[in-house]
């Protein structure tokens, strides 16, 4: 099982709340273990943890993290740092090498990413060499990294779950003994 966490750089609380929340929720849904937030926004932390409490699984959110020390600690612990940027190497060209790694920190930016990140990262990876959302690039990257099992995973200790159905919506409450 891979250990994958997200480092969200440059979150601007007055501007990026919805996008950063979606970065965390998408990462959680696709099998990441947690998210480090480089700025201080307790509302984001609460939103993501509330979803995790209701929908299950284990996902941490660490607030107000120094991005430089986060990257350094991750690498010192034997982890790999993958920075998602449209200026990086194309995902298909480095995917196999990244897939061989078990501990991956995925760096996604909001505003302009400091140049030092490009040098600290083990991989600067482009999901496309065109501008698009950090949510979409992270989702595509995690899909490649985690495989199709991430799309059907079970989340332990869930209070609710979606029951797949051809039409309509069905969400059921889960009894604690299930």
- Care to count the β-strands? 8
Strand content: 15-25%
Shape annotation? globular
Give start-end ranges of low-pLDDT stretches.
none
Second rung of CATH, namely the architecture: 3-Layer(aba) Sandwich
The fold-level CATH name is Alpha/beta knot
Mean pLDDT: 93
**CATH superfamily grouping:** SPOUT methyltransferase, trefoil knot domain
Radius of gyration using CA atoms only = 16 Å
State the strand order across the main sheet: 3-2-1-5-4-6
Describe what is shown at a glance.
The chain has 178 residues and is of the alpha/beta class. It has 6 helices and 8 strands. Belongs to the aTrm56 family.
Q: Can you give keywords for this protein?
A:
Alpha/beta knot, 178 residues, 6-stranded parallel β-sheet, alpha/beta, 8 strands, 6 helices, single chain, two-stranded antiparallel sheet
Task: Walk me through what this model shows.
With 178 residues, this protein is of the alpha/beta class. It has helices spanning 17-29, 42-55, 67-76, 91-99, 115-120, 134-146; strands at residues 3-9, 34-37, 60-62, 80-90, 103-109, 123-126, 160-162, 171-173. It has a single domain, classed as SPOUT methyltransferase, trefoil knot domain (Alpha/beta knot). Strand 7 (160-162) and strand 8 form a beta hairpin. Helix 1 (17-29) packs parallel to helix 2 and helix 1 (17-29) packs parallel to helix 6. The longest helix is centred in the first third of the chain and has 14 residues, at 42-55. The two termini are 24 Å apart. The model has no long low-confidence stretch (mean pLDDT 93). Pfam families: Trm56. Specifically catalyzes the AdoMet-dependent 2'-O-ribose methylation of cytidine at position 56 in tRNAs. Keywords: Cytoplasm, Methyltransferase, S-adenosyl-L-methionine, Transferase, tRNA processing. S-adenosyl-L-methionine binds at residues 84, 109-113, 127-134.
